[in-house]
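Q: Structure tokens for this one, please.
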Amino acid sequence: MGQYQVDLNAESGRLHAELVVFEQEVLPVLFRRTNTSPTQAMGRVFERRLPDLARCLPDWQQATRMLADFLRVDVPLVDGPPLDRSDFAAFLFQKPTASFRIQNGRIVWRIETCMPLDLTKALDYPFVAPELGAICRNDIGMLVREIKQWFIDFPARDDECCFYNTLCTLLPVVADVDPDFAKAALDRDTYRFAINADGTLTDGERSRRMKVVNGFYLGHVLNNALLHVLAALANNHFMRVRDFLVHPHLHGGYTHLMPHYLFAVLFSKVVVLHTHKQLLTPSTPENNKWQYC
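A: Here is the predicted structure, written as tokens:
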């Protein structure tokens, strides 16, 4: 198969495997109740404001299996069942912005739930590190490297609020490029090591920055960042979501939204493969332009 062809069976197979992992591995962990923490209590207060959303694990698993039924590429659209968003309304927290492009014979997804996955747009978000916004945006590779270095240098910074907002806004974009770095950036030990290795810090500065890294509020921010990073990974690296299922801050104030964000990405992929097959014929050309659907 040449680089200008899309193998619908292969794409469907990959997506079906993602749905199985979501149903059998991810959902049971997200719905696992742990010891109540202040951030979990905050999440449960928010849950009560959304009475129409599904909260029962068996219902989620059944909805995931129903969604997988639409992936049969051997059934013509006129013969297959219609895919109606309203049938899954209780599982879709919001309608994402969905797009894709063809690259090297594969579908590259950009399905945005809350935070943008377009790096140039993400840099324009309020409260993001202003020095990053000044970097040339024509070289995405250099821009990603600068952002990664910015995170590594966090212990040398005094603006904790800027770090928290940048973590939730830019790290999801980086995660789609480098999942390993995203995992390291969500690990407190990464920053503890950097603080201890920085010989320019006084004892007082080191103590203050360690207090931030070890503090309760950073745990809350990490839980928020996880929400957006997992949604980003669900695009083109869904199986890497498994890496975060043992994260110490997976359960917190934003955990109740994680199934909705992940399901929204998977649902959008199924919509493309089920409803927009005409855009993915074997003769689909290589195209760097994003196609919105």
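A few notes: The chain has one domain: 8-292. The first strand starts at residue 97 and ends at 103.
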